[in-house]
Known about the structure:
Elements: H1 5-28, E1 37-45, E2 56-60, H2 71-83, E3 88-92, H3 103-110, E4 119-122, H4 125-141, E5 150-156, E6 159-165, H5 176-179, E7 189-192, H6 199-202, E8 208-213, E9 222-223, E10 227-228, E11 241-245, E12 248-252, E13 270-278
Parallel strand pairs: 1-13, 2-3, 3-4, 6-7, 7-8, 8-12
Antiparallel strand pairs: 2-13, 5-6, 9-10, 11-12
Helix pairs in contact: 2-3, 3-4
Amino acid sequence: MPVTRRDFLKFSSTAVAGGLLAATTAALFKDESNTLSIEHITIPIANLKPALEGFKIVQMTDFHLYPFTQLDLVERAVAASNSLKPDLTVLTGDYVWRNINAMDDLAPALAKLDAKYGVFATIGNHDIWLDVEAVKNSFKSVGLPILENQGITFDAGGASLHLAGLDDGWTGHPDLEVAMQGAPEGAPVVLLMHEPDLADVYSQDPRISLQLSGHTHGGQIRVPGIGALIHPHLGKKYDFGLYNVNGMWLYTNRGIGCISEPIRLNCPPEISEFTLVRA
């Protein structure tokens, strides 16, 4: 029996629809939990001094080492971060998950991070819930500083940049004013705060140019056209990527590790590289 034009078009439409369904299904169900992604983000800052033009900051967060996230992934993330040759590397909380002894493996791995002006960390909610003193002691033992309501100012060729690190915003006691002490007038400020939704609070301070956060894992499972299916407290509004909040830039990093479900769909583990440029 000859194939009519209508039959051909019907067959073609069915084939295309089937192909799209297959492609969507494959995208939905491909586990990306061990597939590192490096995101390159340009941050325009008003009145940025020429010496800070091109200043690079690398961020990693939410490692949650063990039982789902393995050391090999962290070691690959460290190597990838170092290959970017950052001026500054920052870690924004939640280092282990169920077993505090995982810090015995994680801290030495993170101690291999290298950046021109140093590597600095802050605390997340899971660190407090598990054993925050043990986390801090592990970092101290390998020489990695934790900024807990503390700030540090860097001089880059005569231009100043202030890094302010806060205690966890959910369970801790963040104090911005203490972390901002000594910040030079007019210097851009980069704020480290684990929970992104607190950008609504901290964006009210015009001194802050950029807030770097984690906490959400990007949802860990993202459905095309819908987004994340689950949002944690203080991570419901700004769950993934770059936002402008009241004139302040906010970036929510997807994190490295997994919790609750040992899988990432359309949401691979992330290393973020930020390049500062003059607006």
